[in-house]
Every structure is written in structure tokens, then in C-alpha cells.
Amino acid sequence: MKIHSTFNKPVVVVSLLFCSLIIGLVLFDSQQSIHWLLNARAFIFERFNWLYVIVNAFFIFFLAFLVLSNYGNIKLGLDEEEPELSLKSWYALLFTAGMGIGVIFLGVAEPLSHSIFPISVNYVERQAVFQSIFHWSINAWAIYGVIALSIAYFGFRYKLPLSLRSCFYPLLKQKIDGKLGDIIDILGLCTTIFGLITTLAYSAVRLIAAFEERQFWFSDKLTIQVIIGTVFIIAIIISTQRVTKGLRIVSELSLVLSLFLMLFVLCVGPTAYLLSTFTENIGFYLNSFIELGLKTYIYEPEHQKWFNEWTILYWAWWFSWAPSFGIFIARISKGRTIREFVLGVLLVPSLFFIAWFTIFGNGAIWVNEYLANGKLGEILNQTGKLLFVFLDYLPFSSFSNHIAFILVLLFFITTVDFGVYILNNISIKDKSVISPRWQIVFWGAIITSITFILFQIGGIEAMQGTMLMFSLPFVCLMFLMVWSLYKGLRFDYVAMHKKEDNQRWLTDNWREQVQYLLMQSDERDTLKYTKSTIMLAMRELRQELIGVYGVDVHLESNLEGDNKYVIFMIDHFYYRIDLEKEAEDNTGNMTIMASTNINYGEKHNIQHLKKDELIFDILKRYDIYLSSN
């Protein structure tokens, strides 16, 4: 029996071969492989840390340029399309996207770590919380924003699939459907796989620590197997219910509980102190993030190790998660203007992270100093326990600990579920076709198996090296993505602001125009119109361009069979007319319609243009093409 699949087989096979090769090497000679991967990690830290910094800063300036320029008025979709989601729902989903199991634990651990081991002796607490906010806010979301904007723009504006390869259409044209497109998806899939399993491996360690803290500890291997197996089963069940059911329900529940926990800590903790630090943290962040965003610590070599193991590792991690967040954010952003999109993506999650790290970070530093007498610092390396111990020093700790534990479980499940969905999305060929459920199970089994293997060999840190290896070329790919996006936007902007003259409407014979607009055409009439008007106009224009100006012109037509078309090419510009069947009404009658299809996917009806009007339309759009190149 043939198994139905929507996989893009070359992408899936090559990606899995790469992943299997690396995992196989680690299994075959774990010590040597881990040593090699750690060396690769150190090499990238030493030689390419500047690249992560400058590309990340460039993304922020590029997005700011779009917001402040007229490009910000362009919609992610057709000009007349309205947003599919209300502003409130869209903000809520962005807010949900910003959360994750990492920030649940690191909200306490990271600021506390920076305060105990400060990089600067000045304003230690303020610097500690600022470093955490800096790593999780605008700089991180600029990476997600660029890839999400590219996917959404080309997906909704050009009607291309919501995929990574679509982002390079202005540069590669139809080649995105070939091997070059497959290479882009392979890199994106491998980057996502290793970013996901590294995150899951670290999260699983913290989850096990949470089980231990909640006194759910049985034995090392048994606990690991139970946790991984249970999460796998639950995530698969949720994933097979489709995004609109499973992921949405779990995400919304996680969002409500995280907001509740944050407000709970604010109320039972040092409330006035936390509100004051929140205000100052915003001001200090706005005052410092540009300077720090371009800082490589080249003049402070004593801080290079800290810089690489915190900032650069974070930037690499965010790049490895960029395809996942990019596809998700793009899917929910149809109908938004670019300005609205960029401001929402950069500001909504960032404001949340400022609040989260203020309440949990400043709160943990305060508790450690005034209530715990430094005991939180003693378990700083036990990130999974630290959150619960911190809550123990606050009122109603039993209640808040249970909420936190449920939240950790939900976010772990959401991470697996979200990762499975994104891996399947990248790996399928036709994004409009619903994948069979066995593919969800397949990807769930892959990431669960790899995560389990990492526990057996203790290779979690080595996976950071693998993640860095794939994130580095993906940084370069995203830099090209910005160029491609700008080229598409430039064409779009020129097309929007070119004077849309149409000589057909300058005639005084308006009755004739009404007749043209309302006339219905059957296949015979359309073919007659194509041969007598379209072909005549194109031949006349070709003769003029070749004979008088020596321009290279190519005319191609096929008026037989089901796929009828005419193509008029001037160098790399093409003007394509397809004769398409479209339903006229509810009776089921069909007619043949003629339309044009020029570069960048624009399509408009030219059914009733006269010969001179058609020539004018070709030249007008060729003029737009020349203006944008």
C-alpha cells in the first residue's frame, strides 16, 4: 500500500542525512565528536562573533527604516485586504509567541547570575537586569521580524507559499522552485532541528529538576524515560488536532497562567520596589541598547568569554529559531501594514520581557539579598530548582509553586508541539495541502529520539556547536533575505506610485466601454480575441522594438490544450497572458478569461483591451520594471 505524503523528498532526505551523520558521529565516538563540536563552537565564537553583532544591528536599522519610510504603508496582502485577526488577538498571539520554557526559568536565573558575577562593578543590579532584557527584547525580535516580514510579504503580497524559499523570489525568480530553493529549505530545516533539540535538551534537564523539587523523583533513567515519553505522546496528540485546536488551546492557557504568575509575584513581592525598577529599566534600556547592540568587547578582552557565552550564544540561538517564529508570525499577520507589523513585532514582546525580567529578575536579586541571605546564589547552577526556591520565599509559596510547575509542563509541551508543526511546514512541498497525521508523528519521533540520545551521551553542550555551525550560514542567508525583501519592496513602491494611466478611459465613447466591461466571453470568442488582437498587438510591438531599436524580444504562444498562454519577453522582463477558466456564476457555466502575469506575480485582467491599449499596457509595465531595476 502506497503511503500518502506531502514531503518535499529531496529536502527531507538530505536534511535527515546531515542530522544522522552528526548524531551518528557522536554515538560512534562520543568523546572525540563532542570535543570536535566544542572546538567548532569555540572557533565560531572567536572568529565570527562580530558577524552576529553587525547583522543583528543591521536588521534593527533596516526595520526602523521601513517604519519611518513610505514602505511602511505597504500591506502584507492585497491593498484592499483587511487583517484576518483583530489587533487585540494579534497582540495576544505575538505575546504568546514571546513566551517559552526558557524564559520561565531564566527570568530568575539570568539576572541573578549577572548580579553575582557582574561584568561591571558599576550599578551591578541595574546592569544585571539590563543584560537579560537586552538579550531577549528588540535585538532578538529584530531577527524574527526580518524573516517573518519576508515570508508574510512574499506569501500574502505575491501569493507565494509561506516558506523560506519564497523570500528569495526577486533574486532567484522561478529558480526558487528548483534545487536552489531546496538548498534554502535544507539549511532552514537543519538549523531549526538543531535549535529545537538543543532547546528541548536544556529544557528537559530543567523540567527534571522541577520534578525533583516537587518531589516527583523516582530514578534517573526512569524519570527521563517517563518525562520524554509522556511529553512525546501528549505533544503528538495535540499536534494531530491541528494548530487551530491543539496548539491554540495550550498556548492560550499558558499565556493566562504566565500573566497570572507574573502579577501574583508583583503583588506578593516588593511591589513598590518592582514598579520603580520597571520604570528605570525601560529608561536604561532605551538609553543603552544601541551602544551595547554594536559592542564586541574587542577593547575589553577580559570580558570576551562572557560576551561569547552569553550574547553571541543567544544571537545564534535566536537565528536557529528564526524559521520557526518567522513562519508562525507570518501566518497570523495577513492584512497588516509593514509599519504596523514591525512596531507590533518589536515592541509588544519587548515590553513583556522588560516586565518579566523586572518582576522575576529584580525580585530574585531582592529576595537573595534581603530574605534568602545569599542562598539563591548557592544553587545558581540548578536553574530548574531556582524558580521554585525563589517562590518559596514569597507568601502563598505552595500555591505559586504549583502554578509554576503547571506552567513549565505546558510550555514544554507547547515547545515540542510548535517545533513539530514548524518542521513539518518547512519539509512539505505544497503548503496549501493538509499533511497526513503520520508526518506529525514522524517529526515528533525524530526530535524526541535525538533529545533522548543527548541525555544518554551527555552531549547537550556539544549540540550548541552544531547549532552554531548551522546558524552561521543562516545568518548570511538572512542578510541576503533583506536584500531580496528590499528589492521586492522597491518594485512594489514604484508600481504603486507610477501614474496609472489607461488610454482606454480617455475615449469619449463610454457606451462602448460599458459593453466591453459587461460582455461575457466563451472559449471560442476568447481564442478569437487572442489571435486577432493580442497576437497582432504583440507582433506589431516586437517588429517595432527589433527593427527600429534592435531590442532582443521573444514571443511565445500555445493556444492548444488546457494550458493556453502567450508570453512576450524583453530581456529579463516578461509579460504573460494565460487563458484561464473561471466560474461566472452559481450555474456552473465556465468561460475563458485572459489575464496578464508579469514579473513578481502581479496579475490583472486585460480581457477587453484593444490593440493599442494592450501595447500601452505592456510598455507601461515595462517602464515600471526598468524603474525598479
Reconstruct the topology from this structure:
Elements: H1 9-28, H2 30-68, H3 87-98, H4 101-116, H5 124-136, H6 138-157, H7 169-172, H8 179-213, H9 220-239, H10 243-268, H11 271-293, H12 304-331, H13 338-370, H14 375-378, H15 383-392, H16 397-427, H17 437-457, H18 460-497, H19 510-518, H20 523-549, E1 553-558, E2 564-570, E3 573-583, E4 590-598, E5 603-605, H21 611-627
Antiparallel strand pairs: 1-2, 2-3, 3-4, 4-5
Helix pairs in contact: 1-2, 1-8, 2-6, 2-12, 2-13, 2-18, 3-10, 3-13, 4-5, 4-13, 4-15, 5-11, 5-13, 6-12, 6-13, 6-18, 8-12, 8-15, 8-16, 8-17, 8-18, 9-16, 9-17, 10-16, 11-13, 12-16, 12-18, 15-16, 16-17, 20-21
How would you explain this protein's 3D organization?
One of its GO terms (molecular function) is transmembrane transporter activity. InterPro entries: BCCT_transptr. With 629 residues, this protein is mainly alpha-helical. It folds into 2 domains: 9-495, Sodium/glucose cotransporter (Up-down Bundle); 519-628. Helices cover 71% and strands 6% of the residues. It is built from 21 helices and 5 strands. The chain has helices spanning 9-28, 30-68, 87-98, 101-116, 124-136, 138-157, 169-172, 179-213, 220-239, 243-268, 271-293, 304-331, 338-370, 375-378, 383-392, 397-427, 437-457, 460-497, 510-518, 523-549, 611-627, and strands at 553-558, 564-570, 573-583, 590-598, 603-605. The protein has a 5-stranded antiparallel β-sheet. Helix 6 (138-157) packs antiparallel against helix 13 and helix 12 crosses helix 16. The longest helix has 39 residues, at 30-68. The protein is elongated and about 90 Å long. Mean pLDDT is 83; it is low at 499-504 and 584-591.
